Structure prediction request, 264 residues.
Amino acid sequence: MHTIFIVSILFLSPFLSGLSVLFLKQGNSFFLKLILSFSGAYLFGLTVLHLIPDVYGHGGSNGETIGLYILGGFLFQLLLEHFSQGVEHGHVHVDKEKVGSFPIAIIISLCLHAFLEGMPLVSSERTHLVFGIAIHHIPAAFALGTLLLAAGSSKTVLLISLLAFAVMTPAGFLTSRFLSENAAGNLALYFDKIMAVVIGIFLHVSTTILFESGSPDHHIFNRKKMVAVLLGIVLSLSSLLFGGHSHTGHDHKHQHSESEHHHH
Prediction:
């Protein structure tokens, strides 16, 4: 997948979704919850099937410590949500007493979250992950736009905030690619640890989405939610079923052996 195409998808998905709050009626969140359930299941499947095996394959002699960084990423996302109030899950918890001020802490934590989400996109499974993140950002951006409108923000502030959020994941992808292509020595191992932290973030976000995306019409929604979840899991399995399993670890070792050969 071409870099320009990846950046375009990652940017347009949250930006256009956030702008849609100016044109769509508020209160009808049923479809957004189904998208949430699908994206949560899809991200969870990709993380378990591809990202975790990749990062352990790269870990080499330090593979036993990868789990610590995954756990650290999980806890870091828990800390981020203390400031973001769950906007990355597509949820808006509006406090009527505090909504009068611009939610700067939410914007910063959401942008940091989006930046980190772009970092695993250098893996060989990035085609699947690009669409997973893009879909995941649709309800997140919509929630952010809704929150800004509730805070009384002007259209200019809304536009600037959505631009900042939309550019973060492409920036994370481009930064991650730069590090992976120019990494040497210990920096390469550091890059794998960053990936492990992002995996922990994905595990937290995806499982929280699946557990929280409920609805008052409990029984009706649960049937449709189950279909959305199963579709997400099946789609994440598709690369394995059709022979698209990651060979990043082999490529990594091959590149390493080539560098040693050139060194000698």
About this structure: The two ends are 34 Å apart (CA to CA).
